[in-house]
Specification:
Number of domains: 1
Number of strands: 0
Oligomer: single chain
Structural class: mainly alpha
Strand content: under 5%
Largest sheet: none
Distance between the termini: 42 Å
CATH topology: Growth Hormone, Chain: A
Order of helices and strands: HHHHHHHHHHHHHHHHHH
CATH superfamily: MFS general substrate transporter like domains
């Protein structure tokens, strides 16, 4: 057994220091931005506890309100990601934050459901490209071996948004009625404001690429540049595709279908959990409902981090994504037997394990064969499944609830989508060496 040389030790130290700096400087900042983004897109679920009565909104209309955000998002998502790749994250992400913050605040001033349809559509248009843009941004900084954990930590902003947002929303609904405005209006106004503040901060603090990062030394920049270039070259040597070929790749569309199925489950959790718990918990305050909605998200955070870490350690993606999808699907089907708020919270926690635990391993899959400008297009296309699911899922649940006066037919159908996603994951190739590379 050979003894490590001084050069080996020096290289290992440089690698360790660089990765640690990236995790401390890049991930926390974009994590906070994602929390703000997710709160602004799903806080209408908490607002609905009083807003629906004030504006006379039916379950089907609420489903459409929740989903129409994603139509606006879908329209501009791929162009937005291509512009981010060309212009740079600092300017483009700052622009997205400032625009969506403005629209989010205006949502608190609508007077009827028709105005709310328009503003929710515009909110999606304003935020378009943020989520896939951040996923693309991570590929500028982290090697494939760190990506499941990095993506998992970043996307943990989704459950954390509920951990922070649900109790806060409940407290606002119960206690804030300033200047004669309804509490749900203040909820939307107050939770939209941080996006505008962070838009300004982003412009000054978010580095575009490693070569412009002031927190890295020259040696660290050089090491990272060489490592990322080496991985990119390995992908290029397998096969080169244009942007159009990336958008028509069968593998990319396979991933689109998987992501669509799982995101149906995510938006059941995000938009309908407050109303589900309230329907089972007569007499509970909005504040208590907010704290109960928080519990599944806390469980989801732990699942996301642990599953992402395990996937990176073993470099195994398929089963690390398929098992969570199966867990979430089972939880949705079993929700039909939930007749108490506490049993519902347990099942929602299992659903959170399923959908949140899935993300880290899943997003490491496309990065194993996408790179460069085609990565920008491919990642945006895969993420567009989020938008289609974000429209179909809430509207489907709302329409079925309106007709059956029960959540459970919609939840069972949503569970079937997660089981289908599980099967599609298991049909993927067993190793990254079987995947074709898509490059510039």
């Amino acid at each position: 057994m050979s003894t490590p040389t001084q050069a080996d030790l020096s290289h290992a130290s440089l690698e360790s220091k660089t990765i640690r700096k990236l995790k401390l400087r890049i991930l926390p900042f974009i994590w906070v931005l994602y929390i703000i983004a997710f709160v602004d897109r799903v806080n209408i679920g908490s607002a609905a506890l009083t807003m629906n009565k004030d504006l006379g909104i039916t379950s089907e209309q609420f489903g459409l309100l929740s989903g129409i955000f994603f139509i606006g998002y879908f329209i501009f998502e791929i162009p937005s990601n291509l512009l981010l790749h060309k212009i740079g994250a600092r300017v483009w992400i700052a622009r997205i934050l400032l625009t969506w913050g403005t629209v989010a605040i205006l949502t608190g001033f609508v007077h009827n459901v028709q105005q709310l349809y328009v503003v929710r559509f515009l909110l999606g248009l304003a935020e378009a490209g943020f989520a896939p843009g951040m996923l693309l941004y991570l590929t500028y900084w982290f090697r494939e071996r760190e990506q499941a954990q990095a993506v998992g930590l970043y996307l943990s902003g989704m459950p954390i948004a509920s951990v922070v947002g649900a109790p806060l929303s409940g407290l606002v609904l119960d206690h804030i009625r300033w200047l004669g405005l309804s509490s749900w209006r203040w909820l939307l106004i107050l939770e939209g404001s941080p996006a505008m503040v962070c838009g300004v901060i982003t412009y000054f603090l978010l580095p575009n690429r490693p070569e412009t990062a002031g927190f890295l030394t020259n040696d660290e920049k050089q090491w990272l540049r060489i490592e990322l270039a080496r991985e990119e070259q390995q992908k290029v040597e397998r096969r080169q595709f244009s942007v159009i070929q990336a958008l028509t790749s069968g593998r990319v569309w396979h991933l689109v279908a998987i992501y669509f199925g799982v995101l149906i489950g995510l938006y059941v959790l995000a938009f309908w959990a407050p109303q589900l718990i309230k329907s089972l918990a007569t007499g509970f305050s909005n504040s208590l409902i907010g704290f109960l909605v928080m519990i599944p998200s806390l469980v989801g955070v732990a699942a996301m981090v642990l599953i992402g870490r395990s996937s990176d350690r073993t470099l195994e993606r398929r089963y690390h994504a398929a098992v969570p999808a199966m867990t979430g699907g089972t939880a949705l089907v079993l929700l039909s037997s939930a007749h108490s708020p506490f049993f519902a919270v347990v099942l929602l926690a299992c659903l959170a394990i399923g959908v949140y635990g899935f993300f880290g391993p899943f997003w490491a899959l496309p990065s194993s064969f996408l790179t460069g400008i085609s990565a920008a297009a491919g990642l945006a296309l895969i993420n567009s499944a989020r938008n289609l699911a974000g429209f179909v899922g809430p509207y489907m649940i709302g329409a079925l609830n309106n007709r059956t006066h029960s959540f459970y037919a919609g939840f069972t159908l949503a569970g079937a989508f997660l089981f289908a996603a599980m099967i599609l994951v298991l049909l993927l190739p067993k190793s990254a060496t079987q995947e074709k590379a898509v490059s510039r």
